[in-house]
Amino acid sequence: MKHLSRLMPPLDSHLEAVNEPVNWSPDSWHARQAAQQPEYTDRAELDAALKQLAGLPPLVTSWEVLALKRRLAEAQEGRHFLLQGGDCAESFADCNNTVITNRLKVLLQMSLVLVHGLKLPVVRVGRFAGQYAKPRSTDTETRGGTTLPSYRGDIVNAPEFDMAARRPDPQRMVQAHARSAMTMNFVRGLIDGGFADLRHPEYWDLSWVDHSPQASEYRDMVDGITNALRFMETLADEPLDSFSRVDFFTSHEALLLHYEQAQTRRVPRNWGWFNLTTHFPWIGMRTAALDGAHVEYCRGIRNPIAVKVGPGVKPDTLLRLVETLNPHDEPGRMTLVHRMGAARIASELPPLLKAVKASGRRVLWVCDPMHGNTETTSNGYKTRHFANISSELEQAVDLHAAAGTRLGGVHLELTGEDVTECLGGARDLGEDDLHRAYKTHVDPRLNYEQALELAMLIVRKSGGRVGA
Ligand code: PEP
Ligand code: CO
């Protein structure tokens, strides 16, 4: 999101092969089955909102999108590691200073742990600035004899259980665009202003996590890095500016196709179409049907694309998905995010790894250890056990090593806040702790401390086995 000179396309970019998608347009998805869409009842109201959206400035630029694609291509070769994380669902109410700052901070701190431990550059991608739409298991929700549309994320409707709140309101897309812009603006400002400057370790402090069992390991790491930096600056006899800056990219689930389409554009001096609401859209597990609208929409845009891969996906289906979304085997284009659950990954993942490896297709394999491990406690909380999350991740490292493939990144739901939503971790949160700070509208997130703990676990477990 910064260092624009570095992100600008190389001078020879016009020499790139032009591979315009065949029989595709930003609205060709309308001819397919579109799962998980709200029912907008007033066509004129919808059209007015989409027209407004189409006239608003984009949230990202095509050269940033292509810069991320090049980084992901590096990750596919084992030279970078992807850290993708943030809220399950952003909410309009959480578009504020504290939540944005703390989320950025935990992601930066995790990336520091990973860079240091894995000895690889980390590609940082937030699940933010647009992660407002949610797939739901049912279209409606019934309480005490009343049936209303399900809550589908703040970009569609509001969570309160009354008709006015649950009515899908197209204007919410315009509001989501505005809040995404505010979030991006603040994140860009923080990073440009030196929030991630390694020479200012005070920005890297641990706040409430200070007393956690990992604190001294983390502090030693930060001290080591800042000392090494000072040493190098002394040698160079000038400040090393590149250490004061990091790049940050954004991602969200490309679920609400009207919204995605409205900001899908051609740009000057680059061929093809770009989704300019985010750098890195992904297709969720429930909308990954080969002949469905989401795959149709995503196949035509030039952004890098990720697909969530859950239990039950057949190797053959996965290969056809990869072929459809990346027919020219373009580097950096295709990321596969497996989310099997700790109990199933050992049986589900190996056939997929084997098939993709045998196909010779370029993909980035990423583990989402969150979504296959969701459960409900006896006292009614949707939660995840830290032990299952870490187990899935550890198994993923071993399974990739056994298959001769590479785990190139992780996809996590986390927050910088001191929430109590996932069980376990170093402080061993129990079911009776969940009520203390259970704030999520949708899925349970790792809190600050659990997130850092997971980053350290990735480093310990990988022991040189991720990356090259
Ligand atoms: C999510 O990432 O919040 C999500 C719904 O994931 P999945 O599509 O893997 O279930
Ligand atoms: Co989620």
In short:
The chain has 468 residues and is of the alpha/beta class.
Describe this structure in words.
It is globular, with a radius of gyration of 21 Å. α4 crosses α6 and α12 packs parallel to α13. The strands form four sheets. It has an eight-stranded parallel beta barrel with strand order 1-2-5-8-9-10-11-14, surrounded by five helices. A two-stranded antiparallel sheet has the order 3-4. The two termini are 26 Å apart. By secondary structure, it is an alpha/beta fold. It contains 13 helices and 14 strands. 46% of the residues are buried. Cobalt (II) ion binds next to loops.
Considering the chains and any ligands shown, give keywords for the structure:
468 residues; binds phosphoenolpyruvate; binds cobalt (II) ion
